[in-house]
Design brief:
binds 5-O-phosphono-beta-D-ribofuranosylamine; single chain; Rossmann fold; three-stranded antiparallel beta sheet; alpha/beta; 236 residues
Length: 236
């Protein structure tokens, strides 16, 4: 016989994490979140999908899923700081616990990021600290790398330079092209993103004073995606 305290059905569940997604393009990473949520694999509430491109397919995916959307045109603002101030204040109005940059292709003004420290993450298609910025697949091929991958990290004012959460690796095959690498990696990105958001939604992973912590313990190294699971120091 279980006591009420032991019965998982009666133990308090954390409320679903409220997530806003920023995306500039296709939105396949957003779709991975939408699918995981629809299939009951991810306890999040998507409160907003915002874009700097009114025609981003990511916005259409959100509309189809009944998620509120927002498109703001950078050209309508005098500079980066005023665009980002407006964007992030509109995002804040939806009160997300977490902002996910999923193919969001703009550098974000440092002042706009201040209020979101530890509450904004990005997925980047390289094994950071290698290849910050653009053309990561091209640069990995040009360097003759045999391993390539994707990284999830907390966002800071330093482009693709914030604390690493987790990475997914793929092997570079002879004859690989930018497109073949990008396509093979994208499947792993989707799983990596969902797995990281899962840990944050479960309130198991956060950015603390000692760095990225899992279950209260600072990670000595980024978690690694193995198969469908994140593994590492104490990823149980
Ligand atoms: C992904 O490769 C992501 O890592 C990068 O941009 C791409 C976005 O793809 N930052 P999608 O828009 O999510 O399909």
């Amino acid at each position: 016989m279980t006591t009420p305290a032991e019965d998982p059905a009666l133990s308090p569940q954390p409320s679903p994490l409220k997530v806003a997604v920023l995306a500039s393009g296709r939105g396949s990473n957003l779709q991975a979140l939408l699918d995981a949520r629809r299939e009951g694999r991810l306890a999040i509430e998507l409160v907003l999908v915002a874009s700097d491109k009114a025609d981003a397919p990511a916005l259409r995916r959100a509309e189809e899923a009944g998620i509120p959307t927002l498109a703001l045109a950078p050209k309508a603002y005098p500079d980066r700081a005023s665009f980002d101030a407006e964007l992030f204040s509109r995002v804040a109005a939806h009160a997300p616990d977490l902002i996910v940059l999923a193919g969001y292709m703009r550098v974000i003004d440092a002042a706009a990021l201040e209020a979101w420290s530890g509450r904004i993450i990005n997925i980047h298609p390289s094994l950071l600290p290698k290849y910050r910025g653009l053309h990561t697949h091209r640069r990995a091929l040009a360097a003759g790398d045999t391993l390539h991958g994707a990284s999830m990290h907390f966002v800071t004012a330093e482009l693709d330079g914030g604390p690493l959460i987790a990475q997914a690796e793929i092997h570079v095959h002879p004859g690989d092209t930018e497109d073949s690498l990008a396509e093979r990696l994208l499947h792993r990105e989707h799983r990596l993103l969902v797995a990281c958001v899962e840990l944050i939604a479960a309130r198991r992973l956060l950015l603390g004073a000692a760095g990225v912590c899992l279950d209260g313990v600072p990670l000595p190294a980024p978690l690694r995606l193995e198969g469908e699971r994140l593994v590492g120091a104490s990823a149980g």
